Amino acid sequence: MKHLEEFRQVVNQSFGYARQLKKDSGKKIVGYVCSYTPEEVILAAGAHPLRILGTKETIHLADSHLQSYCCSLVRGILEEGLSGRVDFLDGMVFPHTCDSVQRLSDIWRMNIPFGFHLDLILPVKLDTLSAQHYMVDVLQKFRTDLGRALQVDITDEALKKAIRTTNAIRQSIRAIYELRSRNPRLMTGTDLYTLVRASMIMDRDRLNILLAETVAELKVKADREKEDTSLKRIILAGGICNHPDIYPMIENAGGAVVWDDFCTGARYFTELIDEGAEPIARIAGRLINRVVCPAKHIDLDGRARHIIRLVKEKNARGVIFLLLKFCDPHAFDYPDIKKSMDEAGIPVMLLEIDDPIPAEGQLKTRFEAFLEML
Ligand code: SF4
Ligand code: SF4
Questions:
Q1: Where are the domains of the chain?
Q2: Ligand 1: nearest atom to the Cα of 263
Q3: In this predicted model, what pLDDT tens digit does every residue of 186-201 receive, in sequence order?
Q4: Atom number of ligand 2 nearest to Cα 72
Q5: Is the peptide bond before 356 cis (omega within 30 degrees of 0)?
Q6: Dmax of the chain from CA atoms?
Q7: Is 293 in the pocket of ligand 1 (CB under 6 A)?
Q8: Thinking of the domain 4-152, which architecture would CATH place it in?
Q9: Atom of ligand 2 at shortest range from CA of 263
Q10: DSSP states of 191-219 as a string?
Q11: Is the CB of 122 under 6 A from ligand 1?
Q12: 212-236 pLDDT, tens per residue?
């Protein structure tokens, strides 16, 4: 793939990339921590949204503020803030999601001296009319607060342009997922991870061009290459996956990840935003209608039904559920998901992961045993 190296460099040097982008373009960099952040509003403010996804460094500073039984994502984000490695940020946005992110927000506000701090108090229950109205009000407030912090007027026209950009990005990533789902040999799981991760870091206008070219390139490749029907098709599910290393382990065991239900994957690009008048209401509509995270509520079994639908649609043989250690929302969700999968006759493997992930041999054996059973 022509642009893969650029995506890799962006992912490997995400903070260096953002610093350079700020220097070259003069754009303000706004960090965020959760996929419920409306990137469109940040883009419409002329700023650059950067998702912070934990740390690869040793966590020690964050330990003075957070219990060791907080997930490594939250502890890692705080570590990046306390260490000053993200001091180029002009501000940070914290959507109201799980308890850990809410507490992270408080600790960040009290201890990190750089950039503005914005909470986005989204509704938790998403299935009522009042929640829909409230979501619109919250986003309007966010638009005002962000505009004030960045000293810009966020216009409807700028919001509509940002919606067109994020829609195009989401359509391209979906097209890549679809092509690869039909023939997983088109690109490795690690490369797909890299591409999606880069999408949360990179300048969105450049990203849009690179993704469109990648789709075109993969379409040509798909026409040439024969589908490999011997692979055991798998869906990955969970909260986030910041572990590209697991893809080769699954692939080496004869499996292929053909779709996922992650905030760092398909949940990031599912649902487009209607284009037209009242852009804030349309952005709110997507946040209400997108595949739900267990830190929010729509119904009791919507997520399980979504995963079962994915299994059928993508012709998958099983589901591997990655549970980040100490992630309560997903841990509470899992038993019901497992029950629904059992009732539907879909094999599921639960894998608790942390930073760093367990030794390769240990994981490899577990993947091999699960795939052998399928
Ligand atoms: S799992 Fe929930 S809280 Fe975590 S990033 Fe996704 S939406 Fe946000
Ligand atoms: S939803 Fe889970 S993984 Fe995401 S921040 Fe909250 S506790 Fe951590």
A1: 4-152
A2: 6
A3: 999 999 999 999 999 9
A4: 8
A5: yes
A6: 58
A7: yes
A8: 3-Layer(aba) Sandwich (3.40)
A9: 4
A10: HHHHHHHHHTTS-HHHHHHHHHHHHHHHH
A11: no
A12: 999 999 999 999 988 888 899 999 9
